[in-house]
Amino acid sequence: MLLVLGLGDNVVDRYINTKTMYPGGNALNFAVYANILGIKASYLGVFGDDEAGKHVYQTSKSLGIEMNHCRFFQGENGYSEVKLVEGDRVFVGSNKGGVSAKHPLGLSKIDFSYINDFDIVHTSCFSFIENDLVDVRKYGKFISMDFSNRYTEDYLERCCKYLDCASISCSEMKDEDITQLMKNIISYGCKHIVIATRGSRGALLLVDGKFYEQSPCLVDAVDTMGAGDSFITAFLTGYINDMKYAVDFSDESGNKGITKIEEYKDLIVRANLYRAAIFSSSICSCDGAFGFGKSYRK
Asked: Fewest CB atoms less than 10 Å from the CB: which of 123, 223, 243, 277?
């Protein structure tokens, strides 16, 4: 069975037009979406002791996310402020990580031993994890990091050498600029996959040197929060699981099985891109990243 870990950020997304907060955050979303897809998922991050932190923690726990290695500190949980414009979420502010910025994870030997148990470890540029990436790389089997649209070439060069997969959000960029950036990310050391989400234009992928394009599954979105995170989660979990099966098959069948890995790899990529587009569109039918709204008072 595939085991995955969301490592790093959690927040509440505070919708200023309705005064409702929803659990979210890139690393936590990865764990929750994997759980929705029937995959055993865990989360390791930092929570504040305010109402927002309690809501995110209790909701995630109720969904079956394993969180035994999380940290808890006195102070304000991370939050972002959001408004909806015709179903599209627009970020308008944040507290820049709250307690997680003041108390980064600072992973220990026990944590690294824990990380070694997982098939995929997914983190983000919002997770204050940069100083730990060298050791996460030593212990993690497959490391994924989402840079959202908060990246510079220097930052990508600093982080990508530790990654198997890098994801970027680039809906405002031209395709030729996106493909060049994806090639740059590989040149910085990212080993296997680059995912570029483009909003309503769908996604571009670079998998072991080959480009793919996936059109979106267009729906009348209630809320686009989590659309990119859910796409990344569905693709990576499906792809890694299918490739893991193919490798297991080759172990049993020798060279014939190894040939089949190459024969079916392209099909595996395309099938999981389509699966990811369908799953992402379904997430756009709920409020927030995955629901569970709660009123807040500023």
From this structure: 243
